[in-house]
Amino acid sequence: MSAPTPKRRWLTICAITASAGLFAIPASAAPGKHDSSPFGARTLGQLASEREHSNSAGSVTPKATAEDPDDGNEADEIAEGADQYAEARTAPGVVAPGAYGAAWQSLANLPTTGGNWRHITNLPYNSDDPRYRDIDSNSSGGSGNVTGRMAAIAADDDGYVYAGSAGGGVWRSGTGGGHWQPISDRLPSQSTGALALDGTGRLWLGTGEANTNADAYLGSGVYVLSDPHHGTFSTRTRVGGDELESTTVRQLRFGGGKVWAATSEGVWSHSTKTLSGSWKLEYAPNPDYLPGHSKATDADAAYKNITNDIAIDPKDPSKVVLAVGWRSGDDYNGFYTKVGGRWQRITSGFGDLPTDADNVGTVTFARSADGSRYYAIDESPEQMASNPDSGLEGIYSAGSLFGPWTKVADYKGLAADGSALTSSGYMPGVQAWYNQFLTVDPSNPQHVYAGLEEVYETKDGGSTWSTVGPYWNFNFSCWSIDPAKQTGDCNPTTHSDQHGVAIGRYHGKSYVYVGNDGGAYRRPVNGSQDSSGHATDWTSLNDGTIDTLQYYSVGIGKDLDHGGVSVTGGLQDNGQSILRSNDKVMGSNFGGDGGDTLTDPANGCNIAQEYVYLALQVTQNCALNDGSWITDPSKATSYNIAPADNATGEARFIAPIGADLKNGSTWVAGGRHVWVQTHGYAIRSGSEWKSVYDLGAGRTATAVAASGGKVYAAWCGPCNEEGYARGIAVGNADGTGWHDISLPVDGTVPNRYLSGFAVDPKNANHVFLAVNGFSRHWTEGPGSGLGHVFESKDGGTTWKDISANLPDVPTNSAVVTADGGIAVATDLGVVYRAPGQTKWKRVGSLPAVAVLQLKLSPDGQTLYAATHGRGIYTFKVRDCG
Fold this sequence. Notes:
Blueprint lengths: L73 H17 L3 E2 L3 H10 L9 E2 L5 E2 L23 E6 L5 E5 L4 E4 L7 E2 L9 E6 L5 E5 L14 E4 L23 E7 L2 E6 L2 E6 L8 E4 L23 E6 L7 E5 L9 E6 L2 E4 L17 E5 L6 E6 L1 H6 L5 E7 L7 E4 L1 H5 L21 E4 L7 E4 L3 E4 L7 E4 L28 E9 L2 E8 L2 E6 L14 E2 L14 E4 L6 E6 L5 E4 L6 E5 L6 E4 L2 E8 L5 E4 L18 E3 L3 H5 L8 E3 L7 E4 L2 E5 L12 E5 L5 E8 L2 E7 L9 E7 L6 E2 L13 E7 L2 E9 L7 E2 L8 E4 L7 E2 L9 E6 L5 E5 L2 E5 L7 E2 L8 E6 L5 E6 L4 E5 L5
Parallel strand pairs: 3-34
Antiparallel strand pairs: 1-49, 2-58, 4-5, 5-6, 6-7, 8-9, 9-10, 11-12, 12-13, 13-14, 15-16, 16-17, 17-18, 19-20, 20-21, 21-22, 23-24, 24-25, 25-26, 27-28, 28-29, 29-30, 31-32, 32-33, 33-34, 35-36, 36-37, 37-38, 39-40, 40-41, 41-42, 43-44, 44-45, 45-46, 47-48, 48-50, 50-51, 52-53, 53-54, 54-55, ...
């Protein structure tokens, strides 16, 4: 049996705003069309041989034409998702530093409801669950148990491992990985940028993920834990003042009694002995763009002082090299060192390692413990813009910090060394701006681990490499979909897309720990490889005690086979999870990125799951499948039902879908058009959708809702700061009565991103609107406005701001409870307004994690919250009052 064309994993990537929240950096990419091969929408096999790079000033960069099977690339999709996730929170204004910190404090001061949240996804999530080997699953790829994106890893020689997640905080294991405990829940930011242990055993945490991706949030500074084996981080453990608030921290390095931080606002340093006092700005290439300076509100300010890493000579800590630059290129990109007390660009003497701005992008350094060897990974803006295969300039080695550097790997060589990424248009380093790590075995200067999309190892300083952690196993002859085996005869691998690495010891044995989009993994430093150079000894450390899953959505339906309910949800790069009532392990029945989802309240195995850009699939058996569709296509039980806006690219990266509250067989989906289909979960083709309204060229739906045949659709277009516009259209599911509502820019509803509707189940004309972004205090420009929740009692004709005491924080979705209360999901938790009341309460107590969607259980008694970093939680509605 031959291996199927592997299924594509999609990531959502976002960026930089100046706040303790989102890092909003614009993308430079055009998304590609999903193919229609027998392997479903997630197929990787026909990746593009050409990438288009453009900054979209409209709502969505158009995808490939329908005639071209797949003129796109996952790296492009990541970057496009970056724009769109950020737009919701930033466009059309500039968000001032401190917005999220102020919101967190305001939320903490709200009255709190009774009751407690119940965590329901705190069990293993097996991406290779043999029950779910249907056409659109990635099961059998070899990643095993997974959790959410791990941005940083640290480990010591006493068996302690620290995993810093993208949005779910920092976790500790005292058993070499596994049996995890959260240790940063009291911080106002749960986004990790860097973790590092200093020479005295203290653990340093730089908050604010620096991967410049779609759901990367800014941080609140740097914290230190003097007893990381037992302590927990708190606001009292912050180093220095508020100088690093609302930045991202990509690396923390130590030398000469100082800790150095590479941030989104330059390179800073602080004494490691005295933790009070301000941070010192060592170097910012464009200081006029820093907060408080003359160009701080410029639209490009967030991209003008990005720094990536610091290399320090341990023998002479006064010798320092800074790697500075924005991944897509800028005049200031390059390497800098101090000459005569002033920082100067290095222009020569580096050998193979480029020093020109066009070829220095995202850079990671590493050095051997004895200081005899230095290594570097360099992503090239020029390669990223022009090379369809890879953005990697190379991996380099030197015997001195100042070179000369020698190239020891490029993308073609890595592809030939056992990589799973050998297809034109998607080769090693194609996402080098997003995923990088590098470390040297403390006992061997020639033994190096490098991370890009995959994990690579060299034991001879780079002369030869092995892909010890391939992207997945689908490409290889050892692969089989046989549900009796995890991945045929292949060995388990890691999840794709590497971000963090550390080497530590447990029970006297050295291990390498890696963090990636699927969580944390380890193998012995001197581990074994098969004849292809793939490691035979990776172990997933995602045992269910750590849950950093990044949900976009949640769906709940009765479990007719086992009683109780079945819960599903769409995830960043971890597909669609499914948790049935009798499960001890969650499975993954759809692969790639999971977006919005619909689940039949009466039957939890009726599921519609969104990929990206309205690439919808439907199943009526939970996508249970033994993989026999490989040889008999008629045995597939998932069906591609994407409406036409998917083929033309006229839909958001995560596009809205919804079912009519009164008739679950009527569905609404939003792209450029408002689409309706009336066959419910029996739909089998995208042709069954009917366009009932054209929102207009350049516009795309941001939220939809329907009840009793009445449909609401919110849109934006353009959706970024260049001419940003938004609106609401209302009509009927049968195509009649459609019209745009008048929403003046300076009217009651602010000119910001309209993120969700909640319709009163008793009255379709009574509707609530959730508005994203920040209000006037934090926003400059036409996005200014008070309020985040609005109410209409006349079908959307007029609106009233009901925000009252609601904290000034982006809101994402809302639901109306059976008694008329309203619950709202925000970037920092959930709030509730009881029926007949005007004030809001905080619902229970969650860490500072974004809640992107709320749904009610089939009986309406339980609230389900999809958090983007800490899994799914439930709360009893009766406790909200």
